[in-house]
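ARCHIVE CARD
CATEGORY: sequence design from structure
SOURCE FIELD: tokenized fold
FIELD CONTENT:
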């Protein structure tokens, strides 16, 4: 049920962003440990999530989304 609610919320928020011609943004939903009516939706600039990495053999850099490994045995997982 949680995944369905989160997916619907993110999809609706994305549609509202497109309707208002706001592009280059990723949907953000916070407060998801509370009931859905208390969730807060927003957007984050995609460029703010990117790292510029040197690309071997090219004059330009490659853009890559920052990521971290998840410890499935960790307390937060």
């Amino acid at each position: 049920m949680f995944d369905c609610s989160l997916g619907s919320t993110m999809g609706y928020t994305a549609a509202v962003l497109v309707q208002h011609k706001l592009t280059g943004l990723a949907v953000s939903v916070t407060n998801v440990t509370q009931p859905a009516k208390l969730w807060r939706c927003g957007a984050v600039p995609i460029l703010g999530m990117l790292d510029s990495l040197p690309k071997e053999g090219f004059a330009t850099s490659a853009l890559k989304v920052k990521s971290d490994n998840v410890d499935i045995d960790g307390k937060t997982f």
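CARD ANNOTATION: The chain has one domain: 2-65. The mean pLDDT is 88.
SHELF: design records, drawer C
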